[in-house]
Write a structure and sequence with these properties.
With 306 residues, this protein is an alpha+beta fold. It is 41% helix and 19% strand.
Protein backbone atom coordinates (compact mmCIF):
# COMPACT_ATOMS: atom_id res chain seq x y z
CA UNK A 1 0.00 0.00 0.00
CA UNK A 2 2.98 2.32 0.42
CA UNK A 3 3.20 2.55 -3.38
CA UNK A 4 -0.37 3.84 -3.59
CA UNK A 5 0.28 6.41 -0.87
CA UNK A 6 3.18 7.74 -2.92
CA UNK A 7 1.06 7.79 -6.05
CA UNK A 8 -1.59 9.90 -4.30
CA UNK A 9 1.07 12.24 -2.96
CA UNK A 10 2.65 12.72 -6.36
CA UNK A 11 -0.66 13.35 -8.02
CA UNK A 12 -1.41 15.97 -5.39
CA UNK A 13 2.18 17.33 -5.74
CA UNK A 14 2.88 16.75 -2.05
CA UNK A 15 4.62 14.07 -0.02
CA UNK A 16 3.05 11.71 2.50
CA UNK A 17 4.76 10.64 5.69
CA UNK A 18 6.36 7.20 5.67
CA UNK A 19 7.78 4.77 8.21
CA UNK A 20 4.81 4.46 10.58
CA UNK A 21 1.81 2.20 10.60
CA UNK A 22 -1.34 3.98 9.42
CA UNK A 23 -3.91 5.32 11.86
CA UNK A 24 -6.96 3.61 13.23
CA UNK A 25 -10.17 3.95 11.24
CA UNK A 26 -12.67 3.48 14.04
CA UNK A 27 -14.55 6.48 15.38
CA UNK A 28 -15.21 7.64 18.89
CA UNK A 29 -15.79 10.70 21.05
CA UNK A 30 -13.93 11.89 24.09
CA UNK A 31 -14.56 14.75 26.44
CA UNK A 32 -10.92 15.70 26.00
CA UNK A 33 -11.20 16.44 22.30
CA UNK A 34 -10.21 19.91 21.13
CA UNK A 35 -13.14 22.20 20.37
CA UNK A 36 -14.99 21.38 17.17
CA UNK A 37 -14.46 24.17 14.64
CA UNK A 38 -17.36 26.61 14.72
CA UNK A 39 -16.75 28.09 11.27
CA UNK A 40 -18.92 26.85 8.44
CA UNK A 41 -17.85 25.66 5.03
CA UNK A 42 -19.24 23.48 2.28
CA UNK A 43 -17.89 19.96 2.62
CA UNK A 44 -17.11 17.93 -0.50
CA UNK A 45 -19.81 15.37 -1.30
CA UNK A 46 -19.17 11.63 -1.32
CA UNK A 47 -19.90 11.70 -5.04
CA UNK A 48 -17.11 14.23 -5.59
CA UNK A 49 -14.67 12.35 -3.37
CA UNK A 50 -15.42 9.06 -5.12
CA UNK A 51 -14.90 10.77 -8.46
CA UNK A 52 -11.56 12.13 -7.31
CA UNK A 53 -10.47 8.71 -6.02
CA UNK A 54 -11.55 7.06 -9.27
CA UNK A 55 -9.57 9.53 -11.35
CA UNK A 56 -6.55 9.02 -9.06
CA UNK A 57 -6.59 5.23 -8.66
CA UNK A 58 -8.91 3.99 -11.41
CA UNK A 59 -5.95 2.84 -13.49
CA UNK A 60 -5.31 0.07 -10.92
CA UNK A 61 -8.22 -2.39 -10.68
CA UNK A 62 -6.76 -3.94 -7.51
CA UNK A 63 -7.33 -0.76 -5.50
CA UNK A 64 -10.64 -0.09 -3.78
CA UNK A 65 -11.56 2.55 -1.24
CA UNK A 66 -14.11 3.44 1.38
CA UNK A 67 -14.85 6.95 2.62
CA UNK A 68 -14.48 6.96 6.40
CA UNK A 69 -15.06 10.56 7.40
CA UNK A 70 -15.60 14.03 5.96
CA UNK A 71 -15.59 16.95 8.39
CA UNK A 72 -14.29 20.49 8.88
CA UNK A 73 -10.57 20.44 9.68
CA UNK A 74 -9.18 22.16 12.76
CA UNK A 75 -7.71 24.75 10.39
CA UNK A 76 -10.25 27.13 8.93
CA UNK A 77 -11.37 26.80 5.30
CA UNK A 78 -10.22 23.20 4.96
CA UNK A 79 -12.28 20.02 4.92
CA UNK A 80 -10.67 16.87 6.30
CA UNK A 81 -11.27 13.67 4.32
CA UNK A 82 -10.26 10.17 5.37
CA UNK A 83 -10.50 7.16 3.07
CA UNK A 84 -9.54 3.53 3.60
CA UNK A 85 -7.47 2.28 0.65
CA UNK A 86 -7.40 -1.48 0.08
CA UNK A 87 -5.44 -3.67 -2.32
CA UNK A 88 -3.64 -6.96 -2.37
CA UNK A 89 -0.86 -5.30 -0.38
CA UNK A 90 -3.12 -4.49 2.57
CA UNK A 91 -5.12 -1.57 3.91
CA UNK A 92 -4.11 2.00 4.64
CA UNK A 93 -6.00 5.02 5.91
CA UNK A 94 -5.22 8.11 3.84
CA UNK A 95 -6.05 11.61 5.08
CA UNK A 96 -6.10 14.68 2.90
CA UNK A 97 -7.58 18.16 3.05
CA UNK A 98 -9.78 19.94 0.52
CA UNK A 99 -9.81 23.72 0.13
CA UNK A 100 -13.07 25.62 0.56
CA UNK A 101 -13.39 26.27 -3.18
CA UNK A 102 -13.26 22.51 -3.80
CA UNK A 103 -10.46 22.91 -6.34
CA UNK A 104 -7.38 21.73 -4.44
CA UNK A 105 -6.39 18.89 -2.13
CA UNK A 106 -3.46 18.89 0.30
CA UNK A 107 -1.66 15.88 1.78
CA UNK A 108 0.29 16.20 5.02
CA UNK A 109 -0.11 17.24 8.64
CA UNK A 110 -1.64 20.41 9.98
CA UNK A 111 0.71 21.39 12.81
CA UNK A 112 0.01 23.75 15.71
CA UNK A 113 1.30 27.30 15.61
CA UNK A 114 1.76 30.09 18.16
CA UNK A 115 4.02 31.19 20.99
CA UNK A 116 3.25 27.97 22.88
CA UNK A 117 2.10 25.68 20.06
CA UNK A 118 2.13 22.39 21.97
CA UNK A 119 0.34 23.48 25.15
CA UNK A 120 -3.25 22.86 23.96
CA UNK A 121 -2.45 19.28 22.91
CA UNK A 122 -0.68 18.60 26.19
CA UNK A 123 -3.68 19.90 28.10
CA UNK A 124 -6.04 17.68 26.08
CA UNK A 125 -3.87 14.63 26.67
CA UNK A 126 -3.54 15.19 30.41
CA UNK A 127 -7.28 15.72 30.79
CA UNK A 128 -8.20 12.72 28.66
CA UNK A 129 -5.50 10.20 29.55
CA UNK A 130 -6.82 6.67 30.01
CA UNK A 131 -3.52 4.78 29.82
CA UNK A 132 -1.08 3.46 32.38
CA UNK A 133 1.88 5.49 33.57
CA UNK A 134 5.48 4.83 34.50
CA UNK A 135 7.42 7.49 36.38
CA UNK A 136 6.66 10.27 38.85
CA UNK A 137 3.29 11.95 38.51
CA UNK A 138 4.88 15.37 39.04
CA UNK A 139 7.58 14.85 36.41
CA UNK A 140 8.30 18.00 34.37
CA UNK A 141 7.97 15.96 31.15
CA UNK A 142 5.16 13.60 30.23
CA UNK A 143 5.50 11.39 27.17
CA UNK A 144 2.33 9.88 25.74
CA UNK A 145 2.92 6.77 23.64
CA UNK A 146 0.12 5.66 21.31
CA UNK A 147 0.91 2.10 20.36
CA UNK A 148 -0.39 -1.14 18.85
CA UNK A 149 0.89 -4.48 20.16
CA UNK A 150 0.74 -6.02 16.67
CA UNK A 151 2.56 -3.12 14.99
CA UNK A 152 6.12 -4.11 14.00
CA UNK A 153 7.25 -0.48 14.08
CA UNK A 154 6.05 -0.23 17.68
CA UNK A 155 8.08 -3.31 18.57
CA UNK A 156 11.15 -1.80 16.92
CA UNK A 157 10.72 1.56 18.68
CA UNK A 158 10.04 0.24 22.18
CA UNK A 159 13.70 -0.37 23.16
CA UNK A 160 14.49 3.23 22.20
CA UNK A 161 11.59 4.49 24.32
CA UNK A 162 12.66 2.25 27.21
CA UNK A 163 16.22 3.60 27.02
CA UNK A 164 14.92 7.16 27.03
CA UNK A 165 12.82 6.56 30.14
CA UNK A 166 15.70 4.78 31.90
CA UNK A 167 18.13 7.64 31.28
CA UNK A 168 15.72 10.51 31.90
CA UNK A 169 14.54 9.99 35.47
CA UNK A 170 12.23 13.03 35.61
CA UNK A 171 9.97 11.77 32.85
CA UNK A 172 6.59 10.10 33.03
CA UNK A 173 5.55 7.71 30.25
CA UNK A 174 1.86 7.09 29.57
CA UNK A 175 0.99 4.14 27.33
CA UNK A 176 -2.21 4.58 25.32
CA UNK A 177 -3.69 1.68 23.38
CA UNK A 178 -4.23 2.50 19.71
CA UNK A 179 -4.94 -0.80 17.88
CA UNK A 180 -5.15 -0.50 14.11
CA UNK A 181 -8.09 -2.01 12.18
CA UNK A 182 -5.80 -3.64 9.61
CA UNK A 183 -4.22 -5.77 12.35
CA UNK A 184 -6.21 -8.90 13.07
CA UNK A 185 -5.46 -9.40 16.78
CA UNK A 186 -4.39 -5.89 17.81
CA UNK A 187 -7.74 -4.95 19.38
CA UNK A 188 -7.74 -8.12 21.46
CA UNK A 189 -4.18 -7.38 22.53
CA UNK A 190 -5.28 -3.91 23.63
CA UNK A 191 -8.15 -5.42 25.66
CA UNK A 192 -5.77 -7.78 27.45
CA UNK A 193 -3.25 -4.99 28.06
CA UNK A 194 -5.96 -2.77 29.52
CA UNK A 195 -7.10 -5.52 31.85
CA UNK A 196 -3.56 -6.31 32.98
CA UNK A 197 -3.11 -2.61 33.70
CA UNK A 198 -6.34 -2.49 35.67
CA UNK A 199 -5.31 -5.56 37.68
CA UNK A 200 -1.88 -4.13 38.49
CA UNK A 201 -3.00 -0.63 39.46
CA UNK A 202 -2.35 -1.42 43.11
CA UNK A 203 1.34 -1.93 42.30
CA UNK A 204 3.46 1.18 42.71
CA UNK A 205 5.01 0.81 39.26
CA UNK A 206 2.32 -1.13 37.36
CA UNK A 207 5.07 -3.69 36.92
CA UNK A 208 2.80 -6.42 35.54
CA UNK A 209 1.47 -4.09 32.84
CA UNK A 210 4.92 -3.18 31.53
CA UNK A 211 6.04 -6.82 31.65
CA UNK A 212 2.99 -7.75 29.61
CA UNK A 213 3.62 -5.02 27.02
CA UNK A 214 7.22 -6.08 26.52
CA UNK A 215 6.44 -9.79 26.34
CA UNK A 216 3.62 -9.14 23.84
CA UNK A 217 6.06 -7.30 21.58
CA UNK A 218 8.59 -10.11 21.96
CA UNK A 219 5.94 -12.71 21.07
CA UNK A 220 4.41 -10.63 18.29
CA UNK A 221 5.26 -12.98 15.42
CA UNK A 222 3.97 -16.02 17.33
CA UNK A 223 0.48 -14.60 17.98
CA UNK A 224 -2.32 -15.18 15.48
CA UNK A 225 -6.07 -14.54 15.58
CA UNK A 226 -6.61 -18.24 16.29
CA UNK A 227 -4.22 -18.50 19.24
CA UNK A 228 -4.39 -14.92 20.55
CA UNK A 229 -6.51 -15.71 23.61
CA UNK A 230 -4.29 -18.58 24.69
CA UNK A 231 -1.05 -16.69 24.03
CA UNK A 232 -2.18 -13.46 25.69
CA UNK A 233 -3.57 -15.33 28.70
CA UNK A 234 -0.22 -17.07 29.14
CA UNK A 235 1.63 -13.77 28.85
CA UNK A 236 -0.63 -12.28 31.53
CA UNK A 237 0.20 -15.20 33.84
CA UNK A 238 3.91 -14.69 33.18
CA UNK A 239 3.55 -10.97 33.96
CA UNK A 240 2.30 -11.76 37.45
CA UNK A 241 -1.49 -11.51 37.23
CA UNK A 242 -4.09 -14.28 36.92
CA UNK A 243 -4.45 -15.00 33.23
CA UNK A 244 -7.95 -16.48 33.43
CA UNK A 245 -9.24 -13.35 35.17
CA UNK A 246 -7.59 -11.18 32.53
CA UNK A 247 -9.18 -13.23 29.73
CA UNK A 248 -12.61 -12.79 31.32
CA UNK A 249 -12.02 -9.05 31.71
CA UNK A 250 -10.87 -8.73 28.09
CA UNK A 251 -14.20 -10.07 26.86
CA UNK A 252 -16.28 -7.47 28.71
CA UNK A 253 -17.91 -4.56 26.83
CA UNK A 254 -16.59 -2.03 29.33
CA UNK A 255 -13.03 -3.06 28.44
CA UNK A 256 -13.72 -2.42 24.75
CA UNK A 257 -15.19 0.93 25.82
CA UNK A 258 -11.99 1.94 27.61
CA UNK A 259 -9.90 1.03 24.58
CA UNK A 260 -12.23 3.00 22.33
CA UNK A 261 -11.78 6.03 24.59
CA UNK A 262 -8.02 5.67 24.22
CA UNK A 263 -8.41 5.54 20.44
CA UNK A 264 -10.70 8.58 20.55
CA UNK A 265 -8.10 10.47 22.56
CA UNK A 266 -5.50 9.73 19.91
CA UNK A 267 -7.81 10.77 17.11
CA UNK A 268 -8.60 14.01 18.91
CA UNK A 269 -4.94 15.01 18.79
CA UNK A 270 -4.43 13.89 15.18
CA UNK A 271 -2.65 10.59 15.76
CA UNK A 272 -2.24 9.10 12.29
CA UNK A 273 0.24 6.30 12.87
CA UNK A 274 1.78 4.02 15.44
CA UNK A 275 3.94 4.46 17.33
CA UNK A 276 3.26 8.14 17.96
CA UNK A 277 4.81 10.01 20.86
CA UNK A 278 3.85 13.34 22.40
CA UNK A 279 6.63 14.96 24.44
CA UNK A 280 4.83 17.58 26.52
CA UNK A 281 2.41 17.91 23.63
CA UNK A 282 5.01 17.92 20.82
CA UNK A 283 4.10 15.23 18.32
CA UNK A 284 6.76 12.78 17.14
CA UNK A 285 5.28 10.48 14.51
CA UNK A 286 8.12 8.62 12.83
CA UNK A 287 9.75 7.44 16.06
CA UNK A 288 11.95 4.86 14.35
CA UNK A 289 13.31 7.50 11.98
CA UNK A 290 14.29 9.97 14.71
CA UNK A 291 17.86 9.60 16.05
CA UNK A 292 18.00 8.79 19.75
CA UNK A 293 20.04 11.92 20.51
CA UNK A 294 17.28 14.05 18.98
CA UNK A 295 14.60 12.39 21.14
CA UNK A 296 16.78 12.92 24.20
CA UNK A 297 17.29 16.56 23.29
CA UNK A 298 13.55 17.06 22.84
CA UNK A 299 12.94 15.67 26.34
CA UNK A 300 15.67 17.79 27.92
CA UNK A 301 14.47 20.89 26.10
CA UNK A 302 10.91 20.29 27.36
CA UNK A 303 12.16 19.83 30.92
CA UNK A 304 14.04 23.14 30.85
CA UNK A 305 10.86 24.99 29.92
CA UNK A 306 9.02 23.77 33.01
Amino acid sequence: MHRHSIVLAVLLTLVTLAGAQQKDASSGNSGSQPPVPTFSMRLPSEETINGFMHETFGYDSSVTWKILEVKPALAENLAQVEVLLSSGQGQQVQRFYVTSDGKHAVVGDIIPFGEHPFAPVQESLLKGMTGFALGPADAPVTIFEFSDLQCPYCKQAQPTIDKLIAEEKNVRLVFQNFPLPAHNWAAKGAYYADCVGQASMSQATNDAFWKFIHSAFESQTEITPDNADAKLTALADQAGVKGSDIAACAAKPETAGRVQRSIALGRSVEVNGTPTLFINGRKVSNVGGVPYDVLKSLVEFAAKKE
